[in-house]
Design brief:
It contains 9 helices and 18 strands. The chain is of the alpha/beta class and about 300 residues long. The structure holds zinc ion (ZN).
Length: about 300
Amino acid sequence: MKAVLLEEKLQYTTERAAPTPLDQEAVIRPTMVGICKTDLELVKGYMGFRGVLGHEFVGIVEECSDPSWVGKRVVGEINCSPRDNIVKDPRHQEGRTVLGILNRDGVMAERFTLPLENLLEVPPHVPDEVAVFAEPLAAAYQIQEQMGELPNEALVLGDGKLGALCALALEDLGCKVTWVGKHTSKLEALAHKVETLTADQPSPHAFPLVVEATGSVSGLERALSDVKPQGTVILKTTVADPHQLNLSLIVINEIQVLGSRCGRFAPALEALAENRVDPRFLIEKIYPIEESMAAFEHAARRGAAKVLLKL
Ligand SMILES: [Zn+2]
């Protein structure tokens, strides 16, 4: 079958063997998949992953031990319990596999498998190019899951895809959002929903919640200086480069710093289905899977918005 494969290097193949499902797993035929920053990092060697790439998808269940799933259009959570120890929330479970990231082939192929308990049915009125955002949007709703009650306003740093989705999710959850980024053209897309500031403008005041999604050290420094005493900083981007940072503000102002990664899909899918969040302005281009190498090159361009693959 056709697949985007990461071996020694990234390649497009037509000769990948079709997967065999384990007990309680579905075989899924993806119709639209997203190229994520994580995929680009994996290509560079992050996690040492080998296999079929991809974890953002919407697709049709082709084969399943539970026939009621067959033919349904689904999205699915990416962390998978081992089959002999299925837990409700495997996001930090030892021995878990992660779709297209850790010990499990991903979604950029004509077929892939996923445990049944990971699947969520997509309502028919939600188009593929909206549903495919369930995974990255879930990461944005994770902020609420971690904090419980949200403060009435928030500062979001970073005008990339994740920053945009965090700004939208927090706005949807009732926060008054101020969104900071380097590119006026990107900020304009949400100017009707949130306050916007360019990165060189100072914040008007301190915020009880600051979400750092810039992917840069300077973003983290700004987050710590723009958060109110006893406020919360959510760290969304992984800055892999080692760097020096003065941590004294965290102590002096008693700031809570929370690392934040994958979210549960249900609140994100609901927001998409109810059209409370429409992420389509983030789509830059849709390529057929046969042109996946060009699509990866495109996605890796600086400042690129979302690149999708159609199957
Ligand atoms: Zn992703």
